[in-house]
From TrEMBL:
Pfam families: BBE, FAD_binding_4. GO terms for molecular function: FAD binding; oxidoreductase activity. This is Unplaced genomic scaffold CY34scaffold_213, whole genome shotgun sequence. It comes from Suillus luteus UH-Slu-Lm8-n1. Belongs to the oxygen-dependent FAD-linked oxidoreductase family. Residues 1-24 form the signal peptide. The lineage of its organism: Eukaryota, Fungi, Dikarya, Basidiomycota, Agaricomycotina.
Length: 495
């Protein structure tokens, strides 16, 4: 056991060496002799700006990279389309030859096969434009970008958009999957702020989807991921963005009581949508610590608002007035990449000291149990939101199925290195989520049936559990737009 006094997030950096080799898999499926030539066919038919890469090239390696080892796979070839028309040509070839493919934006999906494939790996990197339109106060951004890049590119105009909270996440998985951000209390989810998608339909046709051109697809894309085609660009509302106040502060185990009290008091008093906190209860290679991100959307925070956090003895503190992108990068969760991983998600109505003690107990007891075998990281992240968080949208979205009220949530993340422990970890994370749902229910919270966030749901989650009553409509839209089920050749949640 490491002495708690020695703790800092620097021990996380040691983990970056945990790059687990990806096993290569050939094309074993019967009846797919065509496949090895599919890559060549795509290369031949697309324009010269779009390129197919093979194993051995650095672009192939980059295209196949995924944050999580459990969602990484060597592909037959990778394809970097540079125009929406070329995406359409590739989709038609893949459909005609019934070839599996993966669509990757930032590659942060943890579930196996969601954005990776043994077939053709489509990587969106060439869609990297950020075009700001001050007249409409929107920005059109390519789905090959990370949110970090988008925030940084918009800084010169003193505006930003609602994307991810943490460094390294792609535009695609948020614009099509949700997007809980430090700005969500003010402006809603990431995709609540999308005004248009440039979408390549499964039959290869390029279209612009807005609430007026196609209300069905505009509803379905906001939560429906890759079921309806491939999105090349999204247009998002922008908001004025000055410097922000905040950053990371971390506490060793002997200060968890004080940290949990600060979190509960912040919650009890939370009314200001410009304030946000993100609290990670971590057990990393035998060491327990809490890292909290404090955020206020102005160069200074209101007097007293975060005093309790700052007065609890901490092992490190990186808090200042800084750019928005610098704040997003202040939690180095990316250094945990390369592990196998699973996420889970449990809603909360209230965040009290007993609830936080329950979360601390889950962190410590599963941490102690699982790091004995192969877990490297057990993380329970308490993410508070105002109940009004879902009020910032003009038309319905695929997720969440109801917007009657908003919920805070616990995001659970387990990371491990050895695939022999996959089942152990999946079972443990499920048991822990069930235990927390029970504990919260016993506490009087009505959360057992709240729709689970698809971006944090483990692979065995049913579609009903995430999309609820929206599912029949989503299935009907999918059937109409993709009668040949071309998008069934790629992984992810499938309607
Ligand atoms: C370290 C870490 C931090 C996170 N932080 C946050 C956070 O702050 N807020 C939050 O809301 N979530 C967060 N998440 C969850 C995150 O939202 C999901 O992992 C998300 O799907 C990642 O998007 P991506 O583009 O990087 O992933 P990918 O793996 O590239 O894509 C995810 C899914 O979207 C599909 N897709 C991607 N691009 C396209 C496209 N252009 N067209 C059609 N389909 C596409 C893929 O096929 C895949 O099924 C985090 C996850 C991790 C691992
Ligand atoms: C917040 O709420 C708690 C409990 O309701 C209260 O004791 C405290 O004084 C409030 N103010 C701050 C700044 O925490
Ligand atoms: C993590 O992200 C930060 C900020 O974006 C970056 O500087 C750093 O190189 C990244 N580290 C890894 C291991 O990816
Ligand atoms: C702590 O968590 C474990 C694992 O879920 C559970 O078995 C145990 O009952 C919990 N203890 C308390 C005091 O809640
Ligand atoms: C492609 O699909 C769309 C939506 O279903 C349809 O409107 C369009 O006519 C189709 N195009 C072709 C060339 O089949």
């Amino acid at each position: 056991m490491v002495a708690f006094a020695d703790l800092s997030l620097s021990f996380l950096f040691g983990l970056s060496s945990f790059t687990v080799p990806v096993t290569s898999s050939g094309f074993l499926d019967a009846g797919n002799v065509l496949r090895s030539t599919v890559c060549e066919q795509i290369a031949t038919e697309v324009s010269s700006s779009s390129i197919v890469y093979y194993a051995g090239s650095s672009q192939y390696t980059k295209d196949n990279y995924h944050w999580s080892a459990s969602s990484s796979h060597d592909s037959e070839c990778s394809f970097e389309p540079a125009t929406a028309e070329d995406v359409g040509i590739a989709l038609r070839i893949l459909g005609q030859t019934q070839t599996q493919f993966g669509i990757k934006s930032g590659g942060h999906a943890a579930n196996a096969g969601f954005s990776s494939t043994p077939g053709v790996q489509i990587a969106m990197y060439s869609f990297s434009d950020v075009v700001y339109d001050s007249a409409t106060q929107t920005a059109t951004v390519g789905t090959g970008l990370l949110w970090d890049d988008v925030y940084a590119a918009l800084e010169q105009y003193s505006v930003t958009v609602v994307g991810a909270k943490v460094t390294g996440i792609g535009v695609g998985g948020i614009a099509l999957g949700g997007g809980y951000s430090y700005l969500t209390n003010q402006h809603g989810l990431g995709f609540d702020n999308v005004v248009a998608y440039e979408l390549v339909l499964p039959n290869g046709t390029v279209t612009d989807i807005t609430s007026s051109t196609d209300p069905d697809l505009f509803f379905a894309l906001r939560g429906g991921f890759n079921n309806f085609g491939i999105v090349t660009r999204v247009t998002l509302k922008t908001y004025p963005q000055a410097q922000v106040w905040g950053g990371r502060i971390s506490y060793s185990l002997d200060q968890w009581e004080g940290a949990s009290s600060a979190i509960a008091n912040f919650w009890a008093n939370a009314t200001d949508p410009k304030a946000s906190i993100y609290n990670t209860y971590n057990y990393i290679s035998g060491v327990a610590e809490i890292s909290t991100i404090l955020f206020y959307d102005a160069p200074t925070c209101p007097e007293g608002m975060f005093d309790e956090f700052l007065s609890v003895p901490h092992i490190e503190k990186d808090i200042s007035t800084r750019s928005y992108v610098s704040l997003v990068q202040s939690l180095p969760l990316n250094v945990t990449s390369g592990l196998r991983s699973v996420f889970h998600w449990v809603a909360m109505e209230e965040i009290t000291v007993p609830v936080l003690n329950m979360v601390a107990n889950e962190t410590l007891s599963w941490g102690a149990e699982l790091t004995g075998s192969s877990a490297r990281i057990i993380s329970y992240d308490v993410d508070p939101y105002l109940p009004t968080l879902y009020d910032h949208v003009d038309s319905p979205t695929a997720y969440p199925p109801t917007r009657d009220r908003g919920y805070s949530f616990i995001q659970v993340y387990y990371g491990w290195a050895d695939s022999n422990y996959d089942e152990t970890m999946f079972d443990a994370v499920d048991a822990s989520a069930q235990h927390m749902i029970q504990a919260l229910t016993d506490d009087g919270q009505d959360i057992a049936n709240v729709a689970v966030y698809p971006n944090n749901a483990p692979p065995d989650t049913t579609l009903e559990r995430m999309y609820g009553d929206n599912l029949p409509r989503l299935r009907a839209i999918k059937k109409a737009v993709d009668p040949d089920n071309v998008m069934g050749l790629t992984g992810g949640w499938k309607f």
